[in-house]
Queue: 4 jobs
Job 1
Amino acid sequence: MSKFRESLNVFESKDAARHASTLFRESFGSDFPVPCAYRILDTMVQPEDWRQYVAIYTWPDGTEECIGFCNWIKYKEVYLEGGLAVRKSFYRRLDKETYADCSGRGGIAQIIMETAATELTDCVAWFGYCGDAKALRVDLRVGYEQLDHPYLIVKWMQPLDEATRKKWIDDVLRIGPF
């Protein structure tokens, strides 16, 4: 196993704020999205509908650092993905060998999404909003597709006929950016 793989731990956390609140504030300039009950259109989501993943890196001196975060909220039979953040300074602090290993795996954002994709399979699709070209390249590598609607992307987790896909796209479009 590589030094990078041994040093990186990506996992779902029931207390992601403890790990990722500083990273989230640095990335988005807003408070961390703490799981809570609230209404999305006609559906109530509960704290247990939130799935939050963090990426913790252990440096050679033993220091642990949260370098990545992403949030998924279960809405009916789909997940709404948002809040994907990677610590901006992380990559430039890696030695060349570790950087090459991390880059060869697609980077932290891709690793987080690939990890979650093995666990968040109780759905028909993941939806996200993406307006950043670099982030979109990562999203496409993990299976998202661009739609005819600005910024809305989807990763189909089950085979669905076109009418059912359209129903889900229309439903998520009613939510607006998330």
Note: The CA atoms of residues 125 and 156 lie 4 Å apart.
Job 2
Amino acid sequence: MRRIPNLDRYAHTDNDLYGKTLGIVGIGHIGMRSAPICDPLFAMTVMAYDPYLTSEQIAERGAIKVAFDDLLRRSDFVSAHCPRIDETFGMIGRR
């Protein structure tokens, strides 16, 4: 982008991670690695949906437990870390 003359680099700052909200679907072994990085490094709010974990377990992993629809509605970015099984297949779609 530096090679483009007269480019307003601040016109693209909306895509910055700082202060945004990350939604993690499945905060198990892989998903739990995102929360400790995103919160302190980018001052992100980290929410998670995992039907198999309690609010306390999710809080220990650095996130706030929310319902799936709420996570999709409130997140600026969504990171999915769940197995492809009948229960999860098609969970993110047009709706």
Note: The chain has a mean pLDDT of 84.
Job 3
Amino acid sequence: MNEQTLRQQLVELLADSHAHVDFAPAVADLPPALRGVRPEGMPHSPWELLEHLRIAQWDILEFSRDPDHVSPDWPAGYWPPSPEPPEDGAWEASVAAFRADLRAMGELIADPASDLFAPLPWGQGQTLIREVLLLADHNAYHVGQLVLVRRRLGAWPE
């Protein structure tokens, strides 16, 4: 496999749903009244999961491209302060930000000037390929949780 093929496959790993549910249907058509509800026995609401996905992805992206990036405090900085969206439009804004950061990570990975294998000089041995695999894994896990929460809320098409 050549490097260009590897880059294309990594971008597809982020953007497509080859082995799991894609982000788009996981966040689509969820009634606003359910976005802040934690189903019985579940630790997170759809809003909390969406915001966690957005914040963690933003952090991984910024860490991957900005030597001056400061990550949020762990773990509180990676979760919203409330299970409910803070205002009308917050859900849509979070979805849009997630999509924009996902595109930006794809562009970073696709750029031949980005060395996939060199340790990031500001990290502790992390590489760009490690960060994209971490992001894909993290997103798949939490999108799956979001689908499970929606099922428990009766808001997932069967």
Note: Residues 36 and 84 are 4 Å apart (CA to CA).
Job 4
Amino acid sequence: MAWSPLARGAVATGHTPDPAATDLAHQTALLEVLDRAAAGLGCDRTNVVLAWLLRHPSGIVPVLGSTQPDRIRSAARATAIKMDRNTWYRILLAARGQKLP
């Protein structure tokens, strides 16, 4: 299970709750990859993250904390996104911030 998969809204807004605790260059690079994927998939950054988690081979279940119906409906659209392996892998590399061995 992925608790707070959208980092308390930071994925959607691009702002972190505690910027001092975050590598801003890494975060910016990740957001750029998410934005390119969102543009290619015709959705927003939030849906890309949720679709990425749902496609993870370990069967991750995102746990959303929102009580706002519009946000929940929007998040549910991630289940219809068809993300190819190359896009998924680019997001993985950006999230890790380094190449895999």
Note: The helical segments are 10-13, 24-41, 45-55, 69-76, 85-96.
